[in-house]
Amino acid sequence: MPEVRAVHRMTPAKPTHASSVRLTRTADVWKSLGRFGDGVRIGVIDTGVDYRHADFGGGSFPNAKVIGGHDFAGDAYTGKPGSLPEPDGDPLDCEGHGTHVAGIAAGFGVNSDGSTYRGSYDSVDLDAMTIGPGAAPRALLYALKVFGCKGSTNLIAKALDWALDPNGDGDFSDRLDVVNLSLGTDFAAADDPDSLFVRKLVEHGVVVVAAAGNGGDLYDVAGNPANAPEAISVASSRDEYQVLDGLEAAGRQWPGQYSINYEQPVDLTAPVTRLSSNVDGCQPISESLTGKIVWLEWDDNDATRACGSAARTDNAWKAGAAGVLLPTTLPVFAAKIAGNAHIPAFQLTADASRALRPALEAGTLTVHLNSAWKGSQPTFTPSIGDTLSTFSSRSRSSISVSAPGDMISSAEAGTASRGVALSGTSMASPHVAGIAALLREKHPKWTVAEIKAALMNTASGVVRSDSGLREAPMRVGAGRVDALAALSTDVVALGDASFGTVEVSAPLLASRTVRLMNKGTETVRLKAHYEPITAVPGASFQVTAPYVVLPAGGSASVTVRLRIANPAALRKSPDPTISLEDGRQFLAEASGLLLFTGDRSLRVPVYAAPKPVSRLTATAGRVTGHGLDQQDYQARMTVLQLGAHSGRLPDCGPDRQDDCAVNRTARGGDLRYVGATATTDLLAFGVATWNTWANLGTTTQPEVRFSVGGKDFVTKAVKQTDADDNVTADIWFARTVVAGTDEVVDEQPLNGFDGSVDTNVFDSDVVVLPVSRSLLPSGPVTYTVGMRSGYTPPGDSDGFVDLAPQAVFNYEVTVPSLSTVVHPGDQVPAGSLVLFHHNATGNRALVR
After folding, report:
1. Which of 426, 429, 498, 591 is an active site residue?
2. Active site (annotated) includes residue 97
3. Is 46 annotated in the active site?
4. Which residues belong to any copy of the Peptidase S8/S53 domain (predicted)?
5. Among 46, 186, 314, 758, which one carries the catalytic annotation?
6. Measured between alpha carbons, how far is residue 48 from residues 8, 88, 404 in Å?
7. Catalytic residue among 97, 431, 837, 838
8. Which CATH number does the domain 241-376 belong to among 2.40.40.20, 3.20.20.140, 3.40.50.300, 3.50.30.30?
9. Can you tell me the distance from the alpha carbon of 389 to that of 150, in angstroms, rounded to the nearest whole number?
10. pTM
């Protein structure tokens, strides 16, 4: 299911997301302010809701909690080509995701005896409940089912349209108050059609809350609809409480996690042994393990780990082991373990690993594995409180806040009253949707922008990485949400303090304005200052007129300035929380918070990604203009033989359905020039587009089909992926396969260099795709360049935004290297297409 990272079944009578509502002070809102979401209508666009569950009151549809909705999909719908929706009026959940999400947002709660909680929420005993109440326990739910029992969906727009006009009469007065979207597409563009629907809802007063995504620490992975500027995008952080699996040893139960590939019931008691050599089990095991559980050492570093849990579990099984035990040193599991389908595997927590190791070494350790203990171990680990969930997506400036989303317990569909623990930004988003409902109840006339500002301005929870470093707005927005502060504020700071990508060729002073509004009845005095979190040498933020006096009902503006006095001082400094292993590409990003202190405490995220640019051209065979030669940045040039030119695509419209651009993102695939060149070792294809692209290798993908010596090949710009085609690293390749097959014959870094050398891969409109010449027959190369995209025209039939005319390259141009460092006065090799990689947008490609 989209956005879910882990699943654990709950046993009855265990505390649930009580810890989350305490951490975010939502329970304090119930007790201190008496706000429970009464009458506020929340739409859950998801897999439906199991309204029969006690968390929603049980019974038939509609009931007192799930008072409306619609099934747009039908159970058999998968979202795949050829799968047609079969809508009906009953949005019953057959998958489980939407039920869990709805419970987090607005469930009644379930008593320890499995009955619906009907008591008061201002004095509720959270620890006595099987399933705790949702964030807005008296809000009303609408189940808008857009998924079948499995698969994906193309029906989100229909559900958003319904949320705006439930009875379809064109009068939006019956619109829902809040919509939650715990779904999305990684790397999708902010101008995706679904994001445009989000804008429409917000314009008419609907608060839209969306999961930021589970793409992890990858640049720009946070996709739509959460990256719509009007949405409230929610990242996932942890609280101290988690529900883990259990095993029994030394007379007590110990927490950990069972492997996911062993699906049979487990009830196994056996002695634990360790190997005399090959202690991690990554090589075939020669020792007999019959009837034993084997302890296999585990390296928590992904980069140095010799093998995964599947390979070592296979080796143990082949040696006769009855099961596998794995330790860890991490305070929280970075991911689930796979294991295999033949024997159970269990990974102990760090504390359990340390506690049981002496018995292992003494040869006295025996453990009991039992599947009944899945989800049986509530654990409290203070060190993980307000740390970032590793799966939570990285953005640039679209994330609004974070909320607990790791191992969150809520209603389990199809069980009548049981709960299940899930992890994902899907679980963080409805928590914020529920808080937004509390805000809407208190402030029915506030605009959506004011509701969003109240949530962000008061998100005072500081979120850190596992290593203790403070996370920046690119991962957590303004910070971890604080419901009591959000509902208590009467001053909001409106405006966007993101400067985005900033190309710098001369001293620069740019500004953004934040507008303060006092919606209370007293004069408020504030002082503004900037608090840095990540820094870029050479760039600074300044606050003008930092002292503000806001009379009751008054407003004032504060200006944030980005100052770059000397572009030569800019350095490519990474966010300190990221890893640069294996040649990762990265951005230099300056970020922090605009803080207001005094009579109120408010915050606004600030962001900029400055990069120096050259202003080079070729005149009379020489490089001329303003160069770029400083630490981390050097102007680079690639010379090619022009193969083809392509004009600008027109906008798509009612009378133009093909060979057109549907949005700005599609224009990143609008080809301008294509060409080819060669070095001693490489053949390379150059691509220039009319606009900068979004997410090269994912949303926008250059593809070259070429023939040489009677053989056909395809070269694409790709990112590093796993076996399931999920992007795993910010590492770009030109991957070449034999045409018509998946046989990879070559991979070369784009532009000829990995991320240790800056060739301006991000936010560019030129790129070079190399291929090793040693793999190719000799002879002329016939090639065609196309740009694949997720945003092709309505009448498209080939998956390309644009295709350039066919061209032939006969090695007329050879150059010493690709992406060559150049300075004014250097000679330009022969060639009719010159790419200056570090020039400003629109000026990187020159035809001569």
Report:
1. 426
2. yes
3. yes
4. 37-465
5. 46
6. 20, 12, 22
7. 97
8. 3.50.30.30
9. 25
10. 0.91
